[in-house]
Write a structure and sequence with these properties.
569 residues, 4 domains, alpha+beta, Beta-Lactamase, 16 strands
Length: 569
């Protein structure tokens, strides 16, 4: 094989050097989404520019024909790579099944078999004569079948990208680069097919495409901010989500974010300028960390509809990319409730506790003057005053836990003693009601002094919301799988299924939800802090049954439940 570097070969050699260098630079992004399709496409361009340079430099027809045959492999990689890139970029990877991939590989292999068995005059092409050092073939019917398939791959890719552009204008620049460069390439191919230009322009125009790819990756962060899973995640998120470039410019927003900015168009604007908070600055100044790890996690205050709203901001980099996402979760309702709780805490801690301290202190002064007949009542009054003082201290801790996201100090509590005591109090407070206490296993559960408030509220609730003249309440307890399950059933009107979450204040309205009382809100909060759960069902007696689950523990905190039960027996 003899070669001569002619002026005609120089552009193709330059294109080979350029595209090979760009391939190396793009290889750094190989782990990012859609990068595999990009690299396959660029690999085809590198191969094509190399074989065309060798074909033009060859001095004999046989050698030119040899390198011409390798051209088909480069073109196949380019067309299929472009389609795969578009499929991945638009989040349609589900269509790339093993069967589809195997079919594409089979097509490429079959084409190469036909190419190398075609000879100088076959169904794929006829070699033709040399014209100005160029091998100008005459295309046969199989060539047009091959060309139709490869153009079809490109059309599929362009269609997916245009669909992305129509649905999300925020990706207009990226789509413009991807579609515009391939349009240039196909325009040159059509001109060559029509013999308007004798020169094979595919390698030259494809070099422009690869250069456009590289600039889009580096300048527009083409592989960093992808439209991934938009329909199922992005659009349906209740939080306001801003997709950002590495410099803090907005690439895309979801509907909630559009509402946050008042519906105005903010694509390509700085998020710092749009919201007036230092989000982009935090992104630029952050050190490179693990993908998906939060760069910033803080609370910010924004003006919305003329009112101040509090948001929990989380700023994170994209997995497999250099872009970022800023998520704003509206916590205004929570902050308002915390303010209400703070006020309630002051009332409990200062007003009630102070009055109870006075009551308890005065009671101690009265002890020498209590007649023997009133000693039992006196002791009950003093114990109740001490218990209320203990509760106010625990309430303080509870309020601090709610407002600071901390945890309550827990300790083992004898469940049987608590249930027995609370049922006796309920009998005393509601003499017209009948309370039926079943067998209670001798176990201890995670809790503190506020555990009594859980059952006080549930027992009171069972009577207060019962219209019968003589309500019945049943209290039972079972132990299984490391938890104690306490059920408090009544024969009242029950709770409609649609209100069984709201009565605990679990809805968006919190304590303002219909049917919610402070007592049930406190029950739900306490059981959650104790590591348990509470819910309501239909009772066999016709009313409602409130079920409380609590974690079993030993006084030491490490004795198995079976051993604990054996010791108590």
């Amino acid at each position: 094989m003899a070669y001569e570097l002619t002026p005609l070969a120089v552009p193709y050699v330059a294109v080979f050097v350029l595209t090979a260098g760009l391939w190396v630079l793009l290889w750094r992004h190989r782990e990012r989404r859609a990068a595999k399709g990009f690299l396959l496409d660029v690999t085809g361009v590198v191969l094509l520019s190399a074989v065309v340079a060798l074909k033009v430099s060859a001095t004999d027809p046989a050698t030119k024909l040899f390198w011409w045959n390798w051209r088909f492999l480069g073109v196949s990689c380019m067309a299929i790579g472009y389609m795969l890139m578009a499929v991945q970029y638009t989040d349609n990877e589900h269509v790339l099944t093993r069967r589809v991939v195997a079919g594409l590989v089979a097509v490429v292999a079959a084409v190469q078999v036909v190419v190398w068995t075609n000879g100088t005059d076959g169904p794929l092409y006829a070699a033709g004569e040399l014209q100005n050092e160029l091998l100008v073939p005459a295309f046969g019917p199989l060539y047009w079948v091959y060309a139709t398939f490869m153009v079809g791959c490109i059309v599929v890719g362009v269609g997916l990208l245009l669909g992305l552009f129509r649905s999300r204008r925020g990706f207009a620049l990226q789509t413009g680069v991807l579609v515009g460069t391939i349009t240039l390439v196909m325009g040159g191919v059509v001109l060559w097919w029509l013999r308007v230009v004798p020169l094979d322009t595919l390698a030259l125009t494809s070099a422009v495409k690869v250069l456009g790819f590289y600039l889009a990756v580096e300048r527009l962060q083409l592989l960093d901010t992808l439209p991934v899973a938009r329909a199922t995640v992005f659009n349906n998120m209740e939080e306001a989500v801003f997709v950002l470039t590495d410099t803090g410019d907005i690439v895309d927003v979801n509907p909630t974010a559009e509402e946050l900015v008042g519906g105005r168009r903010v694509i390509h604007e700085s998020i710092d300028d749009v919201l007036g908070v230092a989000v982009g600055d935090a992104l630029v100044g952050a050190e490179s960390g693990a993908d998906g790890e939060p760069i910033a996690d803080r609370e910010v205050t924004l003006e919305r509809d003329g009112e101040r709203h509090h948001y929990d901001l989380k700023l994170s980099r994209f997995p497999d990319g250099m872009g970022a996402v800023a998520v704003f979760h509206d916590i205004t309702g929570r902050r308002n409730r915390e303010q209400e709780i703070t006020i309630l805490n002051r009332i409990v801690r200062h007003d009630i506790r102070n009055e109870m301290n006075v009551l308890h202190g005065r009671g101690q002064l009265l002890e020498p003057h209590v007649a023997p007949a009133g000693e039992d009542d006196y002791q009950l009054v003093m114990e109740s005053a001490e218990h209320v003082i203990e509760i106010t201290e625990t309430v303080r801790e509870l309020m601090e836990t709610i407002t600071s996201d901390g945890t309550l100090t827990l300790k083992p509590i004898a469940l049987g003693h608590v249930l027995t005591t609370e049922v006796e109090k309920a009998r005393s407070n509601f003499p017209h009601a009948s309370f039926h206490l079943g067998d209670v296993p001798s176990v201890r559960v995670d809790g503190n002094e506020m555990l009594t408030a859980v059952f006080t509220n549930l027992l009171n609730n069972a009577v207060v919301h019962n219209d019968d003249a003589e309500p019945d309440v049943w209290v039972d307890c079972t132990v299984a799988d490391g938890v104690a399950r306490i059920s408090i059933a009544d024969d009242g009107p029950g709770v409609p299924p649609g209100q069984r979450e709201e009565i605990f204040g679990r809805g968006e309205k919190g304590l303002e939800s219909e049917g919610t009382g402070v007592g049930l809100y406190l029950v739900d909060t306490l059981t959650d802090e104790f590591g348990g759960d509470v819910w309501v069902e239909d009772a066999e007696q016709g009313g409602a049954v409130f079920v409380v689950e609590l974690q079993l523990v030993d006084a030491s905190g490490d004795t198995p439940v079976e051993s604990l039960a054996a010791e108590d027996d």
